[in-house]
Amino acid sequence: xxxxxxxxxxxxxxxxxxxxxxxxxxxxxxxxxxxxxxxxxxxxxxxxxxxxxxxxxxxxxxxx
Length: 64
Ligand code: SF4
Known about the structure:
Layout: E1 2-5, H1 15-19, E2 24-26, E3 32-34, H2 47-53, E4 59-62
Antiparallel strand pairs: 1-4, 2-3
């Protein structure tokens, strides 16, 4: 699994970090980022749900 966040699109709504806190966090400006070492999703089942929860579609999850 490969997770990509388009920071040009992210509005810092935080839904991703709320939905999958083991994978996503928010930086000092409130924008989403993937936790270090979790770029592959870390087996977290809620990664796809987090991508769906993003109101602006900034998260792309693909099978690597
Ligand atoms: S849910 Fe989407 S808009 Fe909100 S912080 Fe996460 S990536 Fe950004």
